[in-house]
Design brief:
This protein has eleven helices and eight strands. It has a single domain (about 15-150, about 215-295), classed as Rossmann fold (3-Layer(aba) Sandwich). It has helices at about 55-65, 90-105, 120-130, 150-165, 165-180, 190-200, 205-215, 220-230, 245-255, 270-275, 275-295, and strands at about 15-20, 25-30, 40-45, 65-70, 110-115, 135-140, 235-240, 260-265. Helices cover about 45% and strands about 15% of the residues. The longest helix has 19 residues, at about 275-295. Helix 2 packs across helix 3 (about 120-130) and helix 4 (about 150-165) runs antiparallel to helix 7. It has an eight-stranded mixed β-sheet with strand order 1-2-4-3-5-6-7-8, sandwiched between helices. By secondary structure, the chain is an alpha/beta fold. InterPro entries: AB_hydrolase, AB_hydrolase_1, AB_hydrolase_fold, Epox_hydrolase-like. This is Alpha/beta fold hydrolase. Keywords: Hydrolase, Oxidoreductase, Peroxidase. GO terms for molecular function: peroxidase activity; triacylglycerol lipase activity.
């Protein structure tokens, strides 16, 4: 999971809730400063166990490049409610949510869609569903199919735990495992409290459904390559290492798509939180180039 480097909103960012035909969504909304024209709109989709704050450090730099940038809690994540029915978290439902947000909250115009980790799988599915709705697609720290095999036992264990224990009990067990592995909690007590609150606010059915998807995702790279051939602008962005999808897998995905693969130095699975300034520049440069091609 991503750990945001801070929680205080920059002056260009507002926390909002918005109604759509598919329910109310919580999001962070960054607008260019006064006097700077808006050159495009971006929608940022977080990964498994994540939330909109995963992108908090990207929002002001992107706004200052002229982009209205919205970071979303998906259904069942943190401040966006989710039902207890596992079927509500199938991929088609997540894609339909993105289109509802785009139409109801973002004016319906094509957006630069960025998906981090599991959010990248959602973004890929959205592109395959309706590529004309997108100004571009960025796959960040996302692989071509299911996560690496060494992660599968952890996901299965989590699915089993969610079926038997409360979110508080699962959180306590995860923190104990971290302590035994020498993984320290965030030094900032506010961020540590946020991480716990975010976990406890998740919909258990959503966590279990996404865990299953992460270990069973098929390879749809060739399908996405056809969208690229028809004009969809796509980029692949990663850190220098990644526990979920090895960076060579991500590089191979980019090669199969025939699109750029940019490595953010000093970042691991979450360039958005670990190297936000550099990542924001990568994104805005790509969006500028995509807009120039669209002409």
């Amino acid at each position: 999971m991503s750990t945001p480097p801070f929680l205080d909103l920059p002056g260009t960012v507002r926390a909002r809730r918005g109604a759509t035909p598919r329910g109310e969504f919580a999001y962070l909304d960054a607008a260019p400063p006064d006097g700077l024209p808006t050159v495009g709109t971006a929608l940022l989709v977080p990964g498994f166990t994540g939330g909109k704050e995963d992108f908090i450090a990207l929002l002001d730099p992107l706004a200052r490049r002229g982009y209205r940038t919205v970071a979303l809690d998906q259904r069942g994540q943190y401040e966006t409610a989710g039902p207890s029915d596992p079927a509500a978290y199938e991929r088609a439902e997540a894609v339909a949510d993105l289109w509802a947000v785009q139409d109801a909250l973002l004016g319906g115009e094509p957006v630069h869609l960025v998906g981090h980790s599991y959010g990248g799988l959602v973004g890929r599915s959205a592109a395959l569903d309706a590529p004309a709705r997108l100004a571009s697609l960025t796959l960040m720290s996302t692989g071509p199919a299911a996560v690496r095999a060494t992660e599968t036992p952890r996901l299965v264990m989590l699915e089993d735990a969610l079926a038997a224990f409360s979110l508080q009990q699962v959180w306590d067990a995860m923190r104990q495992m971290d302590a035994e592995a020498g993984v320290l909690p965030p030094a900032d007590p506010r961020i540590a409290a946020y991480m716990k609150a975010r976990w406890l606010a998740n919909a258990p059915a959503g966590l279990a459904a996404v865990a299953r998807q992460l270990r069973t995702e098929p390879d749809r790279t060739d399908e996405l390559a056809r969208c690229v051939a028809e004009g969809l602008r796509v980029a692949v962005v990663s850190g220098t290492r990644d526990y979920a999808w090895p960076v060579p897998w991500q590089a191979e995905t980019a090669a199969r798509l025939g699109v750029p693969h940019t490595v953010v130095d000093g970042a691991a699975h979450s360039p958005n939180a670990e190297r936000p300034e550099a990542t924001a520049k990568v994104l805005a440069d790509f969006w500028d180039a995509a807009a120039a091609v669209r002409g």
